[in-house]
UniProtKB/TrEMBL annotation:
The chain crosses the membrane at residues 16-37, 43-64, 92-116. The keyword Lyase does not apply. Residues 17-119 form the YutG/PgpA domain. Keywords: Membrane, Transmembrane, Transmembrane helix. It comes from Candidatus Accumulibacter phosphatis. InterPro entries: PgpA, PgpA-like_sf, YutG/PgpA. One of its GO terms (molecular function) is phosphatidylglycerophosphatase activity. This is Phosphatidylglycerophosphatase A. One of its GO terms (biological process) is lipid metabolic process. The keyword Amino-acid biosynthesis does not apply.
């Protein structure tokens, strides 16, 4: 396994995207840090596109990012390395298109998103046990 660092992130655009522009290097809860990056992405897309078009653009970004994540996972040597946070970024931005634009709703969306993300990850890891 090649542990990712800033040099690794900067070495290829695929790594830069998959590791959430560096958010995935966080030593503490990189998925949570990546989730937070979804907020400015949403604000940018919401300013540029109407809701339906914004969601379509996010779908395209997600699909393109999947390839970047695969490339990065192979380079690291771990297919689903915890630092690969592109999915959290795009999924959080997509979530925000469907909640009211209030601070309370955005905070609730963040905690619900993290709760489900951690719960699903835990469930998947249990399903792979012998």
């Amino acid at each position: 396994m090649v542990p990712p660092d800033w040099r690794f992130v900067a070495s290829r655009p695929a790594h830069f995207v998959a590791l959430g522009f560096g958010a995935g290097l966080s030593p503490f809860a990189p998925g949570t840090v990546g989730t937070l990056i979804g907020y400015p992405l949403f604000v940018l897309l919401h300013a540029l596109f109407p809701t339906i078009a914004g969601v379509v653009v996010l779908g395209i970004l997600f699909a393109l990012g999947c390839h970047r994540c695969e490339v990065t996972g192979r380079a690291i040597g771990v297919a689903d390395h915890r630092g690969i946070v592109w999915d959290e970024i795009v999924e959080m931005a997509a979530t925000l298109f469907f909640v009211p634009a209030t601070v309370a709703a955005w905070i609730a969306a963040f905690f619900a998103f993290r709760l489900f993300d951690v719960w699903i990850a835990g469930t998947l890891s249990l399903s792979s046990m012998p």
